[in-house]
Write a structure and sequence with these properties.
The protein is of the alpha+beta class and 220 residues long. It contains seven helices and six strands, in the order H-H-H-H-E-E-H-H-E-E-E-H-E. The radius of gyration is 18 Å and the shape is globular.
Length: 220
């Protein structure tokens, strides 16, 4: 699914609950603007950080969260349209440019569309309006598990855990490979994705030997 479609889904599912939805919608909108900075970096060659400073992200989300529900939705629509327009207009020669994420990771700018898709789908679940990972496209679920597995690969602070999606014929390893005993957690693709990303799990999960499903550390 393209970033625009994912963001439209997020807006459609957003309620007017001021306790959580406002901050989430403001966060997703400002993420679009932050990714614009990376596109500008790739296009001009001038280093343009995701955020100008450590306080910018928090300040802008707090400011945005004070808007009405209608204003929040409109803000997200406009932010997503800006990002979609710049993605479409980025010259072919710029797509291999290296930029730096908010966490300091250097990546090719062609990862930006995925970064946006990941952001809006995960937070569509976080909005808690009845959407679970069952509603997330299967290719996005699989890509999220790829992302989590890559992030956990160097984590020496957790025992490795294997994941097997019974409905997708795929397996993932979370943690450092090579352990003598690696527990295996099985389930459907949406449930494994929810488990790996620390979200409510929509379906049953089963651990090797009828043991308990291991607790995972925070993904991001």
């Amino acid at each position: 699914m393209d970033p625009s479609s994912a963001a439209r889904f997020t807006v459609a599912k957003a309620g007017a609950d001021r306790s959580g939805s406002a901050h989430l919608l403001a966060h997703v909108a400002r993420n679009a603007d932050a990714l614009l900075n990376l596109l500008n970096w790739a296009r001009t060659g001038v280093e343009t950080p995701v955020y100008e400073g450590p306080d910018q992200r928090v300040r802008e989300i707090e400011e945005g969260a004070r808007r009405t529900a209608g204003e929040l939705r409109e803000d997200l629509f406009r932010a997503n349209a800006r990002l979609a327009g710049e993605l479409a207009a980025l010259p072919d020669a710029c797509w291999e440019a290296t930029v730096r994420t908010a966490r300091g990771r250097e990546v090719p700018v062609w990862e930006v569309p995925w970064m946006r898709v990941r952001e809006v789908w995960v937070h569509a679940v976080d909005l808690d309006t009845g959407t679970s990972f069952d509603a997330v496209p299967r290719e996005v679920c699989a890509a999220l598990l790829d992302d989590v597995a890559a992030g956990f690969r160097a984590r020496t602070d957790i025992p490795p855990v294997g994941l097997r999606a019974e409905d997708a014929g795929r397996t993932w390893l979370l943690g450092v490979p090579g352990a003598a005993k690696t527990p295996l957690v099985t389930g459907d693709l949406p449930s494994l994705t929810a488990y790996a990303t620390g979200r409510p799990v929509p379906g049953p999960l089963h651990a090797t030997g009828r043991g308990s499903v291991p607790k995972l550390p925070a993904w991001l």
